[in-house]
Amino acid sequence: MTWIERAALFSPLDYTSLAVLLGAWLWIGWKIEHPSPQKRSVSQMMDNYRRDWMREMVTRQPRMFDAQVVAAMRQGSTFFASTTMIAIGGGLALLGNTERLAGVASDLAIGSAPAMVWEIKILVVVLLLANAFLKYVWAHRLFGYCAVLMASVPNDAEDPQAYPRAAQSAEICVTAARSFNRGLRATYFALASLAWFLGPIALMLGTVTTFGVLYRREFASQSRTILMSQNPNTET
Prior knowledge:
Structural class: mainly alpha
Strand content: under 5%
Number of helices: 9
Largest sheet: none
Number of strands: 0
Order of helices and strands: HHHHHHHHH
Helix content: over 70%
Radius of gyration: 22 Å
C-alpha cells in the first residue's frame, strides 16, 4: 500500500482533529512557559519559589529537609518514567495485534476501519508517550545534577561561592521541573489521543477537554489563587 492510499484511509476531519491535538499540545506548553506578565502561570510562579528555596537552603542547618525534597522529586520522575514505559510496551504490543482490535471495534459498533488505521492511531499515542518518557528521564537526571550542586554549596553562608552555587542549583531545579511538566503534558494529550479510536469528533472533544483542564490548573485554579495571595502586588 502506497502512502497516498494510506492517507486516503483517513477523512479530512481526521486530519483536522489530529492537527487540533498537536496544535493544542504545543500552544498550551508555550503559553505556560511564556505567560504574559499580567497573568503568570502556576509553573512560572513555582520557579520563583524554587529560587527562593535554594537561597534559604544556604543558611539552613542541617540540610536534610532539602535533600529529602529533591529525593521525592526524583522518585516522582522515576515513577512516571516507569509507568510511561509500561504504557509504551502495551501500545507496541497492540501494533502487532490490530486485527483483533479492529474486530473488537466492529463488535462494539465503533467502526470497521482497516487494520492500518488502528495501527496509525496507536502509533500517535505511542509517540506522545515516548516524548513524555524522554522528558521524565531527562528530568530525573537533572534532579540528580541539582542534588550534586546542592551538596557543593558551602556550609558557611559568608563563603563567596555559597549563593552563586545555590543560584546554579535553583536554575537546574527549574529546568528539571520544566522537563517534568512537559512530560506530564505529553502524557495528558496521549490520553486525549485515545479518544481518536471513537472517531475524529471524539478526538476533538478529548483535546478540548484536556486543553481546558491544563489551562484552568495553570491560570484559574485555587492553587494559583493561594500562590498569588502571597504576592498581591504582582497582578490582579
